[in-house]
Amino acid sequence: MRIRRPLGRLLASGFAAGAVVLGCALATPALAQDDRMTPIAIPAQPDAIVLGTGALPGATVQESWHSQYGSVFARNVTVATLTPFLPDPARATGAAVIVAPGGGFRTLSMNNEGWDVAKALADKGVAAFVLKYRLTQTPREMDAFARSMAQMFSDGARAARAAQQDPAVAYAPQIADARAAFALVRSRAKAWRVDPGRVGMIGFSAGAMLTMATALQGQDAKPAFTANIYGPLAPVTVPADAPPLFVALAADDPLFGNGGFGLIDSWRNAKRPVEFHLYEQGGHGFGMYQKTTTSTGWFDDFARWLAMHGYLKGDAR
After folding, report:
1. Is residue 66, in this structure, part of any structural domain at all?
2. Lowest-pLDDT range, 51-65, 86-100, 126-140, 210-224?
3. What is the pLDDT of residue 34?
4. 80 is in which domain, residue-wise?
């Protein structure tokens, strides 16, 4: 008899193994690019819309950005934003996707798991919205930030304590940001040529955990479809109306490659649609990096899955 873990335990188990991960440090890009974290000025984000979830409670360190692996990352995000990437109106299908980058809830991979994903979706006629959600505070100085992450890797006691937390409480700001993102997209559906009933969500690593929380906790933010890209795959209790699920993971993922596939079994046992791609190689954090491994093809697989479910057919508003 299979014992399915509730959402809280799914996320807690993921965080015990992986939420302490600095997502960019495990990005494993295609080329041996510079892996140093170099502080950069916060880039202009003229299209970013501030969500109405307020400032992160108790925050004392303000948002900062750095570059690594030829990409850019945000950390200490204290105010959540949503950035639209809209398709050519002539190609708009009416479908939309909230994009949640990963980074262990301590940083966000804005290029590799955010903007680049959104641009690729817009090219397919799907309106995409990059969610820059609020993050757990980290030290202001880069060296101290790196040391704090190294300590988290080595602190087994802290990981054990993290596993006991209720994610609905510990990560309430991020869940609130996701819900606000859905509310904003649906409220502006006509202007953005979006069908409010065809708004899905895709997340990467910690962003995948946030996506699963949004899908399983439901309420007014429930996605029409979901995609879990290299997030934990522990079993869960699946509601009868769970959305179709797309999952992509590399077998050599150092965080979640050896944790079993209980999430897939849970969806199948509930007789809900699920598609699972297990790539032989790719590591963790492959995202939109162009690699020699077949994991690079995940986006094409995802696009075909969207087409199979009718989300690439024209239903423009």
Report:
1. yes
2. 210-224
3. 65
4. 7-308
**pTM for the model:** 0.90
Q: What is the CATH number of the domain that holds 268?
A: 3.40.50.1820
* Domain count across the chain: 1
Question: Is 127 within the bounds of a domain?
Answer: yes
Whether 1 is in a domain gets the answer no
- Is 77 within a domain? yes
Cα torsion 9, 101, 135, 15 to 10°: value is 20
